[in-house]
From TrEMBL:
InterPro entries: DHFR-like_dom_sf, RibDG_C. This is Dihydrofolate reductase. The lineage of its organism: Bacteria, Bacillati, Actinomycetota, Actinomycetes, Jiangellales. It comes from the Bacteria. GO terms for molecular function: 5-amino-6-(5-phosphoribosylamino)uracil reductase activity. It holds the Pfam family RibD_C. GO terms for biological process: riboflavin biosynthetic process. Residues 111-170 form the Bacterial bifunctional deaminase-reductase C-terminal domain. It comes from Haloactinopolyspora alba.
Length: 193
């Protein structure tokens, strides 16, 4: 079974979006470099960020998201973001009306069942968990091995928290990776067990 990693871009004060679910300048660093990050060529980052992110993206076998993000993005046009093979959506509702059943999306009720499905699909590859409410639930359930953050120098003041509504203390080890890119700081922590 592969590693489970909670990951997202985050403001310095710990938010993944503002109060209206807008990322604002959080994703600007994906456009401020010269090295294409994905096949589309739309995302261009610094060489330093590419060297950190691309190998990680290549390890992901499945990503886990909440239904709210899925609906906001329109299901990413039927293709999981980051060129990932499978997306598992935590939801109490079925797939949207008219959704292509061949699309690599799996709609699962509950974080534990969704994680089991994501791990089955990923095999020995990484399960990437989007930070936010669902990510916080997965962390609270003790299912996260590692936390990755791409910290952007912006302060939102309020909004959607990186760890969602987690109310209990969870210890992380000291950061084992700290890399400065252009307008972003890449951090990686192991979750203390």
């Amino acid at each position: 079974m592969g590693k489970v990693v909670m990951y997202n871009v985050v403001s310095v004060d710990g938010f993944v979006a503002d109060e209206h679910d807008r990322p604002g300048p959080l994703f600007d660093w994906y456009l401020n470099g010269e090295v294409p990050l994905d096949e589309s060529g739309e995302l261009k980052v610094s060489q330093t960020s590419y060297d950190y992110i691309r190998p990680y993206w290549d390890q992901i076998g499945a990503s886990l998201f909440g239904r709210h993000v899925f609906d906001m993005t329109g299901g990413w046009g039927g293709k999981p973001p980051g060129e990932v093979d499978h997306a598992v959506i935590v939801t109490h509702r079925p797939a949207p009306e008219g959704w292509d059943p061949e699309a690599p999306f799996h709609f699962v009720d509950g974080v534990e069942a969704a994680m089991a499905k994501a791990q089955e699909l990923a095999g020995d590859r990484v399960v990437n968990v989007a930070a936010g409410d669902v990510g916080g639930q997965v962390l609270a359930a003790g299912l996260v091995d590692e936390v990755r953050m791409d910290v952007v120098p912006v302060v939102f003041g309020s909004g959607k928290r990186y760890f969602g509504s987690v109310h209990a203390q969870h210890l992380l080890d000291d950061p084992d990776v700290v890399i400065q890119g252009n307008r972003v700081l890449h951090l990686r922590y192991q979750v203390r067990r």
